[in-house]
Design a protein that fits this description.
The protein is mainly beta and 330 residues long. It has one helix and 29 strands.
Length: 330
Amino acid sequence: MKKILLTVLVWILPTVLWGKQLSDKQYIFQRIDVREGLSYQVNCMTVSHRTGHAWMGTKNGIGRFDGYEQKKYLNCNIDQLVEDRNNNIWALGSEGVFLYDAVNDTFYRACDLNGNLISASSICLWDDGVFFGGFDKLYKYDYKTGKIALFRSITSNIKFQITDLYRFDSHTLLAANRWVGALLIDIRTGHTRDVPFDCRDVVTMLPDSKGNFWVTPYCKGVQCYNKNGKLLHTYHTGNSSMQSNIVLALAEYDGHIWIGTDGKGIAVLNPENNQMDVLTHIPGDAYSLPSNSILSFYADPENGIWAGSVRSGMFNIKEVGIKLYADALP
């Protein structure tokens, strides 16, 4: 279904664009035009491994695209969309936590064991379930029971709404809030400790496949730390091809770190040799990146990178194995 989806996209969308960027690499951009009254600002996205549907979370609801049509769900701001290992689609937004009901084709508010509505603003997939971060609380959805319960109340010197939640190691979560800071939570005991690297005013983070953490302090580019807090790399406009130090989104795909900026496109970094390619939108150039302001990424193992933008909806980016020439002989 996933291959069918992107094959259909190539044929039905008017914005299938080929672009030559700052290196010899070539990329194809396949854009999903936003319809059904949805906002062009795409905060998050996912692609269902079970059905191949592309889902996007916007300022005023959720859009689902099946390769032919779009359908809108809900009417609130959606900040996170995640598919778990049981193929459940979770949505977190301004009105709470929602779970997609495939049988009735609708989203319903998620409740705990006592029927209380869950309020959370962050999510993290785990081996045996899904963690949700709320105000000084962790909830957990258990794959075996199919239920959500309060997992642990957090006791620490920092009191905050957990807006970002990441897997730090096999028994530790990293809970963060840009305006307050971050802490590590041992899920076995509930004990907390400081994060070994600076998390002040960090817009987003990315734990990579090697166990390192990439962080984006506001207006300071990108930094990479190991779990002991050692700074391994730093990239900004002064030492790399990056064209903006304001980074809003990160993703890892095929050994590369994708860096989405505010107004200056995407930098694609190979951390092994520090080579960086830059994808940008050029006004009047229909073959360039559709948008320069990138809010979110989704790394699809089969179909490349999906990007959510501020004003241009959602689009897929693939590197292609052919070379194009801008000039041709008459």
